[in-house]
Amino acid sequence: MDYSFDFAPVFQAWRLLAEGAWATTWISAISMAAGLVLGTILTAMRMAPVGVLRALAIGYIEIIRNTPFLVQVFFIFFGLPALGLRLDAMQAAILTMTLNCSAYIAEIVRSGVQSIRPGQIEAGKALGLPSFDVYRFIVFRPAIRAVYPSLCSQFILMMLNTSLVASISAQELTYAAQMIDNRTFRSFEVYFVLGAIYLALSQLFSLGLQLIGRSYFSYPTK
Amino acid sequence: MSAVAARIRPDQNPQAVTDHPAQATITMSAVNKWYGKMHVLRDIDLRVNKGEHLVLCGPSGSGKSTLIRCINALEEIQSGTIEVNGNVLGRKGAKVDHIRRDVGMVFQQFNLFPHLTVLQNCMLAPRRIHRATEAEARDKAMHFLEQVHIAEHGHKYPAQLSGGQQQRVAIARALCMGPQVMLFDEPTSALDPEMVKEVLDTMIGLADQGITMICVTHEMGFARAVAHRVIFMDRGEIIESAPPSEFFGAPKHERTRAFLGQILNH
Questions:
Q1: What is the mean pLDDT of residues A30-58?
Q2: B104 touches chain A (CB under 8 A)
Q3: Residue A147 forms part of a structural domain
Q4: Host domain of residue A171
Q5: What is the DSSP annotation of A96-121?
Q6: CATH code, domain carrying A37
Q7: Tell me, what's the ipTM?
Q8: CA-to-CA distance for A65 and A104, rounded, in angstroms?
Q9: Chain B closest CA to A163's CA: distance in Å?
């Protein structure tokens, strides 16, 4: 092996990498928040007494979870313009990530809701609270707490999945790395550093999610 | 249970019935309930007058918990009607939430909300339903928490309290909605023995204020002291209903005698 490593060209392009890392961070954060909201709505539909809502939610969840993420990205970016919905690469990326992770989140949140003792819901009803309030104020927080670790790994997985949106030229971290590679031909070094940055990002996200969890779920349990 | 036995019976207390002027009666007529093929309530007819204290007892599976859970629609009934405070349950479009606001319930497992402090547990429903301001809800919560002698723990979470303390909070939480009727579903069955008394004392204090109460319990000392009527249920039927002196002194039915023999001969 007579390859000589040269990381200098990669580090010279640090600006590009930093901008890419920042883009990855914020599109992930937005998609996580939106995915959690949409996922919770899907959970409510999935558990609704109305059959039509349940069927819609199940259909949606099954379709999303059984088709590749990359196909979903292409469908939204290249396919939807045929219907008149033209999104730029970033918008398409965020929309796909939100739709994609909401389906997984819905299943996680549902198992959280199912872990809540029926007595909690009965106590809320017995106070005269309408169903919506019972779920919003009584069930939601303990349910999320019960599944928070799974929720966090789903979030991290989604953040790593953002690398796939480079394929529609969304200008995030992997896209930035490809540009540097094209310019320098230092593929090993570029993707080695890229991997290291993703590793660091997931550690940071993990830490951030842990801190959020610690403040939101600080109540003691037996 | 000496404290229980020594107190004045509420029907001898002239103030008892006048504290709650609004009409509060429960009328159950020909109520039937099935769980699948199991007939858990059979033609229940029951009338509870305003200010009356009822104790329901019977072997497990006799339908006593189911009966009180029907009163606030936690269980559906298959036939018959239940009228609470003039609102009729069991008809289409019944205003279930309205009935539930008039009926407080205390559960065997307390069912406090673990993520809310004691105060927040008590403030949630008044804030959401009565649209009380933060301050109003807090004042009301503190008032009832003081009544159950637990106001100093207002900032704590349920998991930081003993079972007896949690159950007293649960009672205060129900009272914050200003119910006309209180339902107790075996409120002391999940408690360690040394905590039973504090909860019973709280319930006795409540009875003295003249609120309508229906208690499912096997605490016969409590029944003797507080109940106007004791009802014995077996296999989904009301077998016997009598004032405590009669119920314990001269039970009419063989099944009642057998049951009392089992729970009192220790």
A1: 95
A2: yes
A3: yes
A4: 23-216
A5: HHHHHHHHHHHHHHHHHHHTS-HHHH
A6: 1.10.3720.10
A7: 0.86
A8: 7
A9: 37
